[in-house]
Fold:
Amino acid sequence: MTATPKRATRTNKTGTTGKPRKGVVKENPSDPEIEERRRLVASLILARRSVTQIARSLGVDRSTIHRDLKAIRGEWQQERLESFERHLDEELARLAMLEATLMPLALGTNGNRPDPRVVDRLLRIIEQRARWLGFDKPHRIEVTGAGGGPVEVEQVDRTDLLMEIERLSERLAATRRDEVPTEPT
Structure:
C-alpha cells in the first residue's frame, strides 16, 4: 500500500499559507520508493540516458528527474569530499609514522651521527605534508603607490608611446655622443 502524497502549499510574505498548488507534490527524500527511483535515475544517467528518456521510462515528470539529479549529484559530491578527506587523513598518518621513524636517525640519537640522506628524506616528508595541507600556497603581495595608496597607472596611446620611445632614444644617443671624447683637430 502506498501513502498518498501531500500537496505543497504556497507561503506568502507574511508566512500564511494559501491554496495548494495543483500538481505539486512534496516528497519525503527518505521514502523507500524515492530512494529506489533515485538509484534507477543514477544508473540510467550513468548509462547516458537523457532526462526525457528517464522520465518516460519511469513514468514521472522531467522536473522530478531534475530534482532527483540534483539530490544525486549532491550525494556524489558529499561522498567525494568524504572520500578525499579519509584518503588525506590516511596519507597524513603515514607521513607522521615515517617522520617519527626517521627523526631519531636524522638527529643522530643513540650515539649515531646524523645521516644527511635521512635528513633530506625527512625534509621531503615535511614539504609533502605542507603541500597536502595547503601551507605552500604563494603569498599575495600588493604593490602600493606613494603613501601606501594605490599605484597610479596612466593609459597611453600606442602612437604617443612610440613617440616617447623615439624621444628617449634620441636623448640617449645625444648623451652617448657627449660622452665620447672628441679627437683634437
Summary: Strands lie at 6-11, 17-26.
